[in-house]
Write a structure and sequence with these properties.
The complex is a heterotrimer of chains A (261), B (477) and C (311). With 261 residues, chain A is α+β, with helices and mostly antiparallel strands. Chain A is 18% helix and 43% strand. In chain A, α1 (108-114) crosses α4, α2 packs across α4 and α3 (148-154) packs across α4. In chain B, α3 (82-106) crosses α12. In chain B, a hairpin with an 8-residue loop joins β15 and β16. Chain B starts with 25 loop residues before the first helix and ends in a 5-residue tail after the last strand. Chain B has helices spanning 26-34, 37-54, 82-106, 111-114, 120-124, 172-185, 187-192, 201-210, 232-242, 298-303, 316-319, 327-335, 352-360, 386-398, and strands at 57-59, 68-70, 73-81, 146-153, 159-165, 220-223, 245-247, 252-255, 258-263, 266-269, 272-275, 308-310, 342-343, 347-348, 365-369, 378-380, 403-407, 413-418, 421-430, 432-435, 439-441, 446-450, 464-472. Chain C has 311 residues and is mainly alpha-helical. Chain C is 77% helix and 0% strand. Chain C has helices at residues 3-33, 38-52, 55-61, 67-76, 84-97, 104-123, 130-151, 156-186, 192-205, 209-215, 222-231, 239-252, 259-273, 277-283, 285-307. The chains are: A alpha+beta (261), B alpha+beta (477), C mainly alpha (311).
Chain lengths: 261, 477, 311
């Protein structure tokens, strides 16, 4: 399936931002599940590219003159192969993803929840299903700084919280699990921001668990970055000096290319 | 002065088992017994005054910000004969080489794990393993430019490595100030004994940092978390001694993946950062987002290879207490040599059969947190109350992975000036090893002394003091 | 050198100079107030607040304008950032930040001032003991100046420190002069004896009384005092002396970063050097000083902007 993506992120500020530096994980890489046909970023200033330790493409944007707003645009076309398992897209060993972080560290409640499920594919599938009914998809119920345990206690959240909770549980059960950020194409086309889901290492490959959508097959998912949690895989993570109040508007248009299939 | 004899069964640095004076301590012993009490008391006051004036202080964690305290200095030196030092030196060289090879390996091909010597989970799931380092090439494949290896002498007379400090080992300023103080107070002793000098340390450190990059005439800075840090004095001291800038995070910024410092003459490119700041605080965009101490963008610049961090990121995976038991195997694996320095036998609570042993023998063992530092998360079984033991038992049962246990070593004792005269007190030794183009160290290191009677805790935050450490170039003094 | 270190040295010196100026300022007011009728007495007491722009802060913390409240507010109050106590604390904080750039002597002089200050605050200062406190402040200032002049390397660190001193001093002299000129023309009691007493107190406070006597044999006049404190190159607290030093120091700082600051300082310095009392009289003293204060602050901002990375 060929997808076309137009992802705009715009930060508006009360005043002018004197300087700013952003880590952008907005460039997908080729792997066995996805092929990048065309991709580019439109940025307001100088940028450098490196690969981070996980193998994600990291674009570093530095702005050192005053800006009224910062607009970042990613545009491209990719081909999704519809393959369910990903085996080697990262140079970091899977055991790294056994570690909890401040955002995923489970509390007793969450541990008890996890321990109901056997640590295998079927068990995780059941856990995913139950999780979606326990923690309802509710935009605005949480913020980016809510931990897995907090979101679980609230019983509401967005894809980021679902993913944090799910990876926290997997790791607690001794299964390496990673946080994936990217895009998804949905039939109704109403998913307008970027997306997050989990991947779990079972035997010899990474399996997809898109908790928010209850999906196990990544045939509509374009992967941007992986990490231990949101902070490590976030598409945009930045710091700025000055500017006062910030407002964010973001939209990710994911459309299926008509000329295919 | 009156000199109290050491209790039987321990190893004393000055007296042998028959309470005869070891030859390398003869001069000090005679001087101590012949010198008038009043003169010693006067010298002691002079030393206190000088330390106060120079302001060699440390801040104590848990006390209000900026509370400065003086580290007690003991005037009786700890003496190591040259023959002994040569063995230690060879052992340290070997150990540091192997640890550096281990770090290179765990961040590249993972040979030691593939060979089955260290379990993959022990390394990769360790919070100190830094994924950001995977596959990164460093100049000279060097990770640990500055290390401090803690050694103790057991009552069998042998030295044991207690722990490796591969992140930001501190204390070297005390080593240098203690020497300066001794030379000032007792110049006559130095004319009678051939004490190996240590004053070259700052120059050696500078040379090491210069060699950490391939760039000629690099710009070096010392990065401090700031003046409320417990070791701020040392950071300022080393920067001044090396003639480089002491910077805080806010003095640096990153542009185009290069690090610059803000100077009155405009931006200046920085090539080497001797950082005294933990990994987690270095870059708020890559690690702890709430860090105000770091430099946004530093991680990317580091990955891009435009700046050297000394020590490298992620070195903590090799000095973690759960990795410590594998060091002798590392030496055999990477160097094909037998370890020169002994490791303390260690039980890993994560292994069920060893956990059982530990829980059964808590009152005889020393239990340490694998992530702990500074002597806070530690149980000394034979000295602990029943409640303390039970508290640790619960803690160990709850998180066995977090603990290791070792037999109680009886640290050697060394005569020390205390209220009741001169009495034996327990000591350890932290030599500082520098790795650049070659491995270098100054003879000796920092001797820490537990000033309380019978205490085995030498940390300055827990009432420890320091002594000047003499490596004698002749075996007698 | 590091921008932050330059900034700390600059501010360390400014705070110490400010501490001294506050003490001198209060000294003049308390002395002058002794001579006044009740209604004018309050005006005299308020002068230091007007000069430092802290009248509102004062009334937030105290109800009545009394000499004791004023002493407390200007010397000891830790809630008020402009008190001598707070200035010495800030100076010491800045000094701690740059311990690597100053000598042990300079550090010790500041550190022990701070330790003494804390003890003095514990004991309190009363109207009868306040002159001893003024002496103490001046003495600590002399010690700091002596230690820095006598032990610091003549490098940029020294220059930024001295810049702080002279900028702050010029600012203070101009403010004191302006405020007392204003007072002398607005008070009800216009007896010449009072005028004489007040200007004498001002000159004493600025350490320029002897200079005045040796230069102007005739009776005390505001024009003479203004000329002495603005244009005389030999009076250490005169605007001309301060600006001369400022321009000289800037000229010797390495690098091209400070062109704008150098230009502003040199121009203001030339303005004073080639100014005369007629020019000042034509413009009006108050207008002249207002303009001067704007320009000295512009120079301070420019120095921080050019060298210390403060936008």
């Amino acid at each position: 399936m060929k997808l076309h993506i137009e992802h705009d992120t715009c930060y508006g500020y009360e005043g002018e931002v004197r300087a700013s530096i952003q880590y952008l994980r907005l460039t997908p890489k080729n792997n066995e599940q996805q092929k990048i046909l065309d991709w580019h970023l439109e940025l307001p200033g100088d940028a450098n590219e490196i690969d981070d330790g996980y193998g994600n493409r990291l674009t570093v944007l530095t702005l050192d003159y005053p800006q009224p707003e910062i607009t970042i645009r990613a545009v491209g076309t990719v081909d999704l192969k519809g393959i369910d398992i990903c085996t080697h897209d990262s140079c970091v060993p899977p055991q790294v993803f056994l570690r909890q972080t401040e955002l995923t560290e489970p509390d007793n409640e969450l541990r008890r929840f996890a321990e109901q499920y056997p640590p295998n594919y079927d068990g995780l599938q059941a856990m995913m299903r139950d999780l979606l009914s326990t923690v309802r998809y509710t935009p605005g119920a949480t913020t980016v700084s809510h931990t897995a345990a907090e979101a679980f206690a609230i019983g509401a959240g967005v894809c980021q919280d679902h993913t944090h909770i799910f990876v926290a549980c997997c790791r607690h059960l001794g299964m390496p699990a990673r946080y994936v950020s990217g895009y998804i194409h949905t039939q109704d086309g109403d998913h307008i921001s970027s997306h997050a889901w989990a991947e779990v290492w079972i035997d010899d490959g990474w399996y997809t668990f898109d908790v928010a959508n209850g999906l196990l097959m990544p045939d509509s998912h374009l992967k941007l970055a992986v990490g231990l949690d949101y902070l490590e895989a976030a598409p945009v993570r930045g710091i700025r000096y000055g500017g006062g109040q910030e407002s964010l508007s973001a939209s990710a248009l994911v459309s299926r290319m008509a000329n295919e299939q | 002065m009156e000199m109290h004899l050491p209790p039987e069964g321990g190893y004393d640095e000055l007296f042998d088992a028959d309470n005869k004076i070891r030859p390398h301590y003869q001069v000090i012993h005679d001087w101590l017994t012949q010198t008038d009490d009043e003169l010693i008391a006067e010298k002691r006051r002079e030393a206190d005054l000088l330390f106060h004036r120079v302001g060699i202080t440390f801040n104590v964690y848990g006390e209000s910000q900026g509370a400065e305290r003086l580290i007690p200095f003991d005037m009786i030196p700890r003496i190591i004969p040259a023959t002994e030092w040569h063995i230690l030196q060879a052992g340290l060289r070997q150990r540091v080489t192997a640890l550096n090879r281990f770090l290179f390996d765990v961040y590249h091909d993972h040979d030691i794990i593939k060979a089955g010597l260290v379990p993959a989970e022990q390394v990769f799931a360790n919070p100190q393993y830094q994924p950001a380092m995977q596959g990164l090439h460093l100049p000279r494949n060097l990770y640990i430019h500055i290390t401090g290896i803690d050694l103790v002498r057991n009552n069998d007379g042998d030295y044991y490595v207690l722990e490796d400090n591969l992140r930001c080992p501190s204390g070297v300023s005390y080593m240098l100030e203690d020497r300066k103080m001794m030379m000032r107070l007792f110049p006559e002793l130095f004319t009678r004994c051939a004490v190996a000098p240590v004053e070259q340390y700052p120059a050696m450190l500078r040379e090491t940092l210069q060699a950490s990059t391939l760039k000629p005439n690099p710009c070096i800075v010392v990065l401090t978390p700031g003046r409320y840090n417990s070791a701020y004095f040392e950071h300022a001291f080393l920067a001044r001694q090396m003639g480089v800038e002491l910077v805080e995070g806010a003095d640096l910024y990153v542009h185009n993946n290069e690090v610059y410092m803000r100077t009155t003459a405009g931006p200046r490119r920085v090539d080497v950062i001797y950082r005294r700041l933990d990994d987690a605080f270095l870059d708020p965009l890559a690690f702890r987002p709430d860090s105000m101490l770091g430099v946004p963008g530093l991680f990317a610049a580091y990955r891009a290879g435009t700046v050297v961090l000394a020590n490298a990121l992620g070195t903590g995976v090799a000095d973690d207490k759960s990795i410590y038991p594998y060091v002798p195997d590392m030496i055999r694996f990477y160097l094909g040599e037998e370890p020169i320095l002994k490791n303390v036998p260690t039980w890993q609570c994560r292994k069920p059969e060893e956990l059982r042993y530990v829980l059964d023998n808590l009152s005889d063992l020393v239990v340490k947190e694998t992530q702990g530092a500074g002597g806070y998360g530690m149980l000394i079984g034979p000295r602990a109350s029943r409640e303390e033991i039970e508290r640790f038992r619960d803690a160990i049962k709850a998180r066995p992975d977090n603990y290791i246990a070792q037999p109680t070593l009886s640290l050697s004792s060394c005569p020390t000036l205390v209220d009741e005269g001169i009495a034996p007190r327990h000591i350890d030794l932290r030599p500082f090893v520098l790795t650049g183009k070659r491995i270098q160290m100054v003879p000796g290191g920092l001797t820490r002394v537990a000033l309380r009677k019978h205490s085995l805790v030498v940390n300055s935050s827990q009432g420890g003091g320091t002594k000047d450490t003499w490596v004698l170039e002749d075996s007698e003094c | 050198m590091l921008s932050r270190a330059a900034s700390s040295l600059f501010w360390m010196a400014r705070y110490l100079e400010r501490a001294e100026s506050i003490a001198r300022l209060l000294d003049v007011s308390l002395t002058a107030a002794l001579m006044e009728t009740n209604s004018d007495r309050e005006q005299q007491l308020i002068a230091p607040l007007t000069i430092s722009g802290t009248t509102d802060t004062f009334y937030e913390l105290y109800e009545d304008m009394t000499a004791q409240n004023l002493i407390d507010f200007l010397l000891l109050n830790d809630q008020h950032g402009g008190s001598v106590f707070s200035c010495i604390r800030s100076a010491r904080d800045n000094a701690h930040h740059v311990r690597g750039n100053i000598t042990a002597d300079v550090w010790e002089s500041i550190n022990s001032s701070w330790l003494d200050m804390k003890a003095i605050r514990q004991r309190g200062v009363s109207e009868s003991s306040v002159s001893r406190f003024f002496d103490w402040v001046k003495e600590r200032s002399h010690l700091f100046r002596g230690a820095s002049y006598g032990t610091l390397l003549r490098n940029d660190a020294f220059r930024f420190l001295r810049l702080g001193t002279f900028i702050e001093r010029a600012d203070n002299t101009a403010r004191i002069l302006d405020a007392h000129y204003h007072l002398s023309t607005s008070l009800e009691n216009t007896e010449s004896a009072r005028d004489l007493f007040e200007w004498t107190a001002l000159l004493h406070a600025l350490g320029a009384y002897e200079a005045y006597q040796s230069i102007y044999a005739d009776r005390m006049s505001s024009e003479n005092v203004a000329e002495l404190l603005i244009l005389n190159p030999d009076v250490p607290r005169s605007l001309r002396a301060c600006l001369h030093e400022t321009a000289e120091l800037l000229a010797h700082i390495e690098g091209d970063a400070g062109r704008a600051a150098k230009r502003l300082a040199t121009s203001l310095s030339a303005n004073l050097r080639y100014g005369d009392r007629q020019y000042i009289a034509d413009r009006g003293l108050h207008e002249y000083l207002t303009d001067f204060l704007a320009r000295i602050n512009q120079i301070a901002d420019q120095i921080q902007n050019d060298y210390m990375g403060v936008a």
